[in-house]
Design goal:
alpha/beta; 10-stranded mixed β-sheet; about 35% helix; globular
Length: about 220
Amino acid sequence: MPIEIKNTRGYRVDAVKMVVYGIAGSGKSVLCSTAPNPIIISAEHGLLSLADKDIPYIEVKTLKDINDAFNLIKKSTEFQTICLDSVSEISEVLLSELKKEAKDARQAYGKLAESLGAMLRNFRNLPGKHIVMTAKRKSVEDEIAGTVEYMPSLPGRVLPESLPYIVDEVFVMKMALKKGAVVRTLQTQPDRQYTAKDRSGALLQFEEPDLTQIFNKIMEHSKK
């Protein structure tokens, strides 16, 4: 196949691929319910917050379960948004499975980085489907500088560093108490503490936690 030279002008996306991370109880699972026609792939028992919603989900406990879920969704035209809730829990379930098969822990972590990394890229590459990967938040302390940095939490060293590079959007789910009520927002831009990014250029630094609204803003901006 001959090499084709293309031009970035007019480059468009057919769907949004993102990572959203935050502390437990910040509202990541509920955020998935705001996406258009979602299905949730879950390895945790954290869906109680969605008990009043009508959202289909697939529970996964092994690597085979995840591959089967991927193959099922790949053929389906019913779902517009795929939510992996959460990749932190999914990776921990897979790591537990791999540790039983490996001779030592290093082999298990290496296999996890390889298999989970490939799986996440497979989901990201699904054409025409929004992909939302939620994750726990972890902190990294710099004792010399006296600073703390927050980022998505995954087992090992390779996966936490590579996850933000897999997608175009990385958001932090934040919540604060204002006038006696809990207010949640999505931080889309990085600062000295939080890893975040918005490659679309369509979003404010802080956005309302509504994925349908965010997807529309990014897709409309891509068309201009």
